[in-house]
Amino acid sequence: MSAWEVAEERARAAIGRPEHRDLGIVRAEDAAEFARSAGETGPHLVDPGHPDFTVHPMYLVSLLRGAGGAGRDELRPDGMYRDEVPGTDGLDVRLMAGGQEVRFTGEVRTGDRIQVRRVLTDVERKGSGSPFLLLTVEKTYTAERGTLVRVRERFIVR
Q1: Do 149 and 60 form a contact (C-beta atoms < 8 A)?
Q2: What whole-number distance in Å separates Cα of residue 126 and Cα of residue 157?
Q3: Residue 43: enclosing H or E segment and its boundaries?
Q4: C-beta atoms surrounding 9 within 10 Å
Q5: Tens of pLDDT, residues 64-101
């Protein structure tokens, strides 16, 4: 069985099983650094001391781990987190982003403790000559006051 076929088998077994992760507390300094890295220059996004400081809307979607990130043992050789694409941990497969839909439902604020719920919702085998998998993952980012962002991501596995 090829590595992507093993990934398919693993992913199909994981469909519908929710995973939860605590991403920690949103810090103004981290959000401002993200905005600067994204090329933003507006002081309301890059200066935590600005009276109208706002967390960049895409900052939350960029969070994959809590404070401190991950150790080397949590990363694949390509730099992605080993468990970010369901079914692929430890396998020699090629991964690509296959699209992302983001729906904002609340405002992210500094001091928010963020939780993410992730569920693999679909696994499709595509192509005939050189087949690949298309995995669909849905994430819900929440703070104590409710849902902030819903994300639907697709990953291509070869």
Answers
A1: yes
A2: 10
A3: helix 43-46
A4: 12
A5: 766 555 566 777 777 777 778 889 988 988 888 899 99
